[in-house]
Design a protein that fits this description.
The protein is α/β, with parallel strands linked by helices. Helices cover 30% and strands 16% of the residues. The protein contains eight helices and eight strands, in the order H-E-H-E-H-E-H-E-H-E-E-H-E-H-E-H. The protein has an eight-stranded parallel β-barrel, surrounded by four helices. Helix 7 links the parallel strand 7 and strand 8. The longest helix has 19 residues. It is globular. The relative contact order is 0.17.
Protein backbone atom coordinates (compact mmCIF):
# COMPACT_ATOMS: atom_id res chain seq x y z
CA UNK A 1 0.00 0.00 0.00
CA UNK A 2 1.34 3.47 -0.81
CA UNK A 3 1.16 4.76 2.75
CA UNK A 4 3.33 1.89 4.02
CA UNK A 5 6.77 2.49 2.64
CA UNK A 6 10.15 1.32 3.82
CA UNK A 7 11.54 4.82 4.31
CA UNK A 8 12.60 6.02 7.75
CA UNK A 9 10.05 8.79 7.98
CA UNK A 10 7.05 6.45 7.85
CA UNK A 11 8.54 4.04 10.35
CA UNK A 12 8.79 6.63 13.08
CA UNK A 13 5.27 6.09 14.47
CA UNK A 14 5.30 2.31 14.56
CA UNK A 15 5.67 2.42 18.34
CA UNK A 16 1.94 2.94 18.90
CA UNK A 17 1.77 6.51 20.23
CA UNK A 18 -1.47 7.44 21.97
CA UNK A 19 -4.12 8.69 19.58
CA UNK A 20 -6.81 11.15 20.64
CA UNK A 21 -9.79 12.93 19.15
CA UNK A 22 -10.01 16.34 17.56
CA UNK A 23 -13.61 17.30 16.77
CA UNK A 24 -13.79 19.67 13.77
CA UNK A 25 -17.16 21.05 14.85
CA UNK A 26 -20.34 19.34 15.95
CA UNK A 27 -23.71 20.83 15.10
CA UNK A 28 -25.33 23.36 17.45
CA UNK A 29 -25.94 21.87 20.92
CA UNK A 30 -29.70 22.01 20.35
CA UNK A 31 -29.27 19.76 17.30
CA UNK A 32 -26.49 17.56 18.67
CA UNK A 33 -26.92 17.27 22.44
CA UNK A 34 -25.62 13.68 22.57
CA UNK A 35 -22.49 14.63 20.64
CA UNK A 36 -21.54 17.42 23.04
CA UNK A 37 -22.38 15.29 26.08
CA UNK A 38 -20.03 12.54 24.89
CA UNK A 39 -17.07 14.91 24.95
CA UNK A 40 -17.10 15.12 28.74
CA UNK A 41 -17.77 11.44 29.36
CA UNK A 42 -15.00 9.79 31.42
CA UNK A 43 -12.81 7.63 29.23
CA UNK A 44 -13.01 9.81 26.12
CA UNK A 45 -9.48 10.70 24.93
CA UNK A 46 -10.36 14.19 23.70
CA UNK A 47 -7.61 16.56 22.60
CA UNK A 48 -9.88 19.39 21.49
CA UNK A 49 -13.30 20.26 20.08
CA UNK A 50 -14.31 23.21 17.90
CA UNK A 51 -17.20 25.55 18.69
CA UNK A 52 -18.67 26.99 15.49
CA UNK A 53 -21.75 29.23 15.52
CA UNK A 54 -22.77 30.48 12.09
CA UNK A 55 -19.20 30.31 10.81
CA UNK A 56 -17.72 31.98 13.88
CA UNK A 57 -18.78 33.20 17.35
CA UNK A 58 -22.17 34.56 16.24
CA UNK A 59 -23.51 38.04 16.96
CA UNK A 60 -24.18 37.53 20.68
CA UNK A 61 -23.52 34.91 23.36
CA UNK A 62 -25.61 31.79 22.81
CA UNK A 63 -26.90 30.30 26.10
CA UNK A 64 -26.75 26.72 24.81
CA UNK A 65 -23.16 27.15 23.64
CA UNK A 66 -22.26 28.85 26.91
CA UNK A 67 -23.47 25.73 28.70
CA UNK A 68 -21.41 23.26 26.66
CA UNK A 69 -18.38 25.56 26.86
CA UNK A 70 -18.70 25.56 30.65
CA UNK A 71 -18.95 21.78 30.78
CA UNK A 72 -15.81 21.30 28.71
CA UNK A 73 -13.93 23.91 30.70
CA UNK A 74 -14.93 22.29 33.99
CA UNK A 75 -13.93 18.85 32.70
CA UNK A 76 -10.52 20.19 31.73
CA UNK A 77 -10.09 21.79 35.15
CA UNK A 78 -10.84 18.47 36.82
CA UNK A 79 -8.47 16.73 34.41
CA UNK A 80 -5.61 19.07 35.16
CA UNK A 81 -6.20 19.54 38.86
CA UNK A 82 -8.06 16.42 39.95
CA UNK A 83 -7.34 15.14 43.42
CA UNK A 84 -6.73 11.61 42.20
CA UNK A 85 -3.91 11.36 39.63
CA UNK A 86 -5.52 8.33 38.00
CA UNK A 87 -9.04 9.78 37.99
CA UNK A 88 -10.75 8.61 34.78
CA UNK A 89 -12.13 12.09 34.16
CA UNK A 90 -8.59 13.13 33.21
CA UNK A 91 -9.18 11.45 29.87
CA UNK A 92 -11.87 13.96 28.87
CA UNK A 93 -9.95 17.16 29.59
CA UNK A 94 -9.85 18.49 26.04
CA UNK A 95 -9.72 22.13 25.05
CA UNK A 96 -12.54 24.10 23.46
CA UNK A 97 -11.37 25.93 20.32
CA UNK A 98 -13.13 28.79 18.59
CA UNK A 99 -13.76 28.44 14.85
CA UNK A 100 -12.14 31.12 12.67
CA UNK A 101 -12.71 30.82 8.92
CA UNK A 102 -9.70 32.14 7.01
CA UNK A 103 -11.44 31.57 3.65
CA UNK A 104 -8.08 30.52 2.15
CA UNK A 105 -6.62 33.91 3.04
CA UNK A 106 -9.61 35.95 1.90
CA UNK A 107 -10.82 37.35 5.25
CA UNK A 108 -9.48 40.65 6.65
CA UNK A 109 -7.13 40.46 9.63
CA UNK A 110 -9.21 42.86 11.76
CA UNK A 111 -12.36 40.83 11.17
CA UNK A 112 -10.68 37.64 12.33
CA UNK A 113 -9.30 39.31 15.45
CA UNK A 114 -12.75 40.70 16.30
CA UNK A 115 -14.20 37.17 16.07
CA UNK A 116 -11.37 35.84 18.23
CA UNK A 117 -12.03 38.44 20.92
CA UNK A 118 -15.72 37.50 20.97
CA UNK A 119 -14.86 33.82 21.40
CA UNK A 120 -12.55 34.63 24.32
CA UNK A 121 -14.91 37.12 25.99
CA UNK A 122 -18.08 35.05 25.62
CA UNK A 123 -16.97 31.42 25.69
CA UNK A 124 -13.52 31.59 27.29
CA UNK A 125 -12.07 29.32 24.62
CA UNK A 126 -8.67 27.73 25.10
CA UNK A 127 -7.51 28.25 21.55
CA UNK A 128 -8.60 28.51 17.93
CA UNK A 129 -9.19 26.32 14.90
CA UNK A 130 -8.26 28.22 11.73
CA UNK A 131 -10.49 26.63 9.11
CA UNK A 132 -9.72 26.81 5.38
CA UNK A 133 -6.17 27.86 6.15
CA UNK A 134 -3.98 28.55 3.10
CA UNK A 135 -1.24 26.10 2.21
CA UNK A 136 0.97 28.19 -0.09
CA UNK A 137 4.26 29.78 0.93
CA UNK A 138 3.09 33.21 -0.27
CA UNK A 139 0.33 33.28 2.37
CA UNK A 140 2.61 32.20 5.21
CA UNK A 141 3.57 35.70 6.49
CA UNK A 142 -0.08 36.70 6.86
CA UNK A 143 -0.89 33.48 8.73
CA UNK A 144 2.12 33.98 10.99
CA UNK A 145 0.97 37.51 11.79
CA UNK A 146 -2.48 36.18 12.67
CA UNK A 147 -1.30 33.28 14.82
CA UNK A 148 1.16 35.53 16.64
CA UNK A 149 -1.65 37.94 17.52
CA UNK A 150 -3.95 35.10 18.57
CA UNK A 151 -1.29 33.67 20.88
CA UNK A 152 -0.93 37.12 22.46
CA UNK A 153 -4.70 37.39 22.98
CA UNK A 154 -4.83 33.95 24.57
CA UNK A 155 -1.88 34.76 26.83
CA UNK A 156 -3.76 37.81 28.11
CA UNK A 157 -6.93 35.84 28.86
CA UNK A 158 -7.60 33.73 31.94
CA UNK A 159 -9.15 30.87 29.97
CA UNK A 160 -6.18 29.44 28.07
CA UNK A 161 -3.74 27.36 30.09
CA UNK A 162 -0.25 26.87 28.68
CA UNK A 163 -0.79 29.77 26.31
CA UNK A 164 -3.68 28.11 24.47
CA UNK A 165 -3.65 26.00 21.32
CA UNK A 166 -3.81 26.95 17.65
CA UNK A 167 -4.73 24.41 14.97
CA UNK A 168 -4.41 25.18 11.27
CA UNK A 169 -7.15 23.48 9.26
CA UNK A 170 -5.37 23.05 5.94
CA UNK A 171 -6.88 19.70 5.05
CA UNK A 172 -3.74 18.87 3.04
CA UNK A 173 0.01 19.10 3.48
CA UNK A 174 1.01 22.79 3.41
CA UNK A 175 4.38 24.41 2.86
CA UNK A 176 6.70 23.19 5.68
CA UNK A 177 6.98 26.70 7.11
CA UNK A 178 3.44 26.47 8.47
CA UNK A 179 4.63 23.94 11.04
CA UNK A 180 6.27 26.80 12.95
CA UNK A 181 3.17 29.02 12.80
CA UNK A 182 0.88 26.99 15.07
CA UNK A 183 0.68 24.09 17.51
CA UNK A 184 -0.93 21.57 15.16
CA UNK A 185 -1.73 21.17 11.45
CA UNK A 186 -4.60 19.25 9.87
CA UNK A 187 -2.75 17.62 6.98
CA UNK A 188 -5.61 15.44 5.75
CA UNK A 189 -9.34 16.07 5.55
CA UNK A 190 -11.38 14.05 3.11
CA UNK A 191 -12.95 10.71 2.24
CA UNK A 192 -11.72 7.26 3.16
CA UNK A 193 -11.37 6.39 -0.52
CA UNK A 194 -8.55 8.95 -0.73
CA UNK A 195 -7.10 8.41 2.73
CA UNK A 196 -6.41 4.72 2.34
CA UNK A 197 -4.04 5.47 -0.56
CA UNK A 198 -2.63 8.73 0.77
CA UNK A 199 1.04 9.44 1.40
CA UNK A 200 2.67 11.62 4.00
CA UNK A 201 5.03 14.50 3.20
CA UNK A 202 8.60 13.67 4.19
CA UNK A 203 9.16 16.95 6.06
CA UNK A 204 6.63 15.89 8.71
CA UNK A 205 9.21 13.40 10.03
CA UNK A 206 10.93 16.32 11.77
CA UNK A 207 7.96 16.71 14.13
CA UNK A 208 6.18 14.48 16.67
CA UNK A 209 2.67 13.06 16.04
CA UNK A 210 1.16 15.65 18.40
CA UNK A 211 1.73 18.23 15.64
CA UNK A 212 -0.62 16.63 13.09
CA UNK A 213 -4.31 15.73 12.77
CA UNK A 214 -6.31 13.73 10.23
CA UNK A 215 -10.08 13.96 9.62
CA UNK A 216 -11.58 11.19 7.51
CA UNK A 217 -15.22 10.59 6.58
CA UNK A 218 -16.88 7.57 5.02
CA UNK A 219 -14.70 5.11 6.97
CA UNK A 220 -16.53 1.74 7.18
CA UNK A 221 -16.60 0.03 10.56
CA UNK A 222 -14.72 -2.89 9.05
CA UNK A 223 -11.80 -0.60 8.15
CA UNK A 224 -11.34 1.18 11.48
CA UNK A 225 -8.19 -0.75 12.34
CA UNK A 226 -6.71 0.01 8.94
CA UNK A 227 -7.56 3.71 9.27
CA UNK A 228 -5.91 3.96 12.69
CA UNK A 229 -2.88 2.10 11.36
CA UNK A 230 -2.55 4.64 8.55
CA UNK A 231 -2.78 7.52 11.04
CA UNK A 232 -0.02 6.03 13.19
CA UNK A 233 2.25 5.24 10.26
CA UNK A 234 1.80 8.74 8.86
CA UNK A 235 2.53 10.36 12.20
CA UNK A 236 -0.85 11.84 13.16
CA UNK A 237 -1.58 12.06 16.89
CA UNK A 238 -5.09 13.51 16.61
CA UNK A 239 -7.89 11.99 14.53
CA UNK A 240 -11.60 12.05 13.81
CA UNK A 241 -12.93 9.13 11.79
CA UNK A 242 -16.60 8.74 10.90
CA UNK A 243 -18.72 6.45 8.77
CA UNK A 244 -20.93 9.39 7.84
CA UNK A 245 -20.52 11.32 4.62
CA UNK A 246 -20.22 8.36 2.30
CA UNK A 247 -21.49 8.69 -1.25
CA UNK A 248 -24.78 7.31 -2.48
CA UNK A 249 -25.20 5.21 -5.60
CA UNK A 250 -25.51 8.34 -7.76
CA UNK A 251 -22.19 9.66 -6.43
CA UNK A 252 -23.68 12.43 -4.29
CA UNK A 253 -22.64 13.02 -0.72
CA UNK A 254 -25.27 11.87 1.75
CA UNK A 255 -24.60 14.66 4.26
CA UNK A 256 -23.46 18.28 4.00
CA UNK A 257 -21.07 18.05 6.96
CA UNK A 258 -20.07 14.48 7.82
CA UNK A 259 -18.32 15.68 11.00
CA UNK A 260 -21.41 17.35 12.50
CA UNK A 261 -22.64 14.18 14.24
CA UNK A 262 -21.21 11.18 16.06
CA UNK A 263 -20.04 8.25 13.95
CA UNK A 264 -22.30 5.27 14.40
CA UNK A 265 -19.37 3.32 15.88
CA UNK A 266 -18.37 6.02 18.40
CA UNK A 267 -18.28 3.68 21.42
CA UNK A 268 -16.20 1.19 19.47
CA UNK A 269 -13.57 3.66 18.32
CA UNK A 270 -13.33 5.15 21.84
CA UNK A 271 -12.67 1.69 23.25
CA UNK A 272 -10.08 0.91 20.56
CA UNK A 273 -8.10 4.05 21.29
CA UNK A 274 -8.53 3.73 25.03
CA UNK A 275 -8.42 6.44 27.70
CA UNK A 276 -5.46 8.76 27.74
CA UNK A 277 -4.39 12.05 29.19
CA UNK A 278 -5.30 14.90 26.85
CA UNK A 279 -2.74 17.37 25.59
Amino acid sequence: MPYLTASAYTLRTAGGEQLGFGVPGYAHPLLAPAEWAELVRPGTPLHWAVLNIAGGPGTRPDPHCLEVAGRLRNARERALHGEEPDDSVRACGGRLLGHLDLAHGGRPFDELIADARSFIDWYRVGGFYLARCPTERAELPAVRRLTGTLHALLAESDSADDGGRLVLGHGAHPHPGYAEAADQLVTFQGPWTDYRWSQVAEWTADYPPSRFAHFVHGVPRTHLDEAMRIARWQGAGTIFFTDRGGQSADGRSGQTDPFAALPRYWDEIVSRIGPGISE
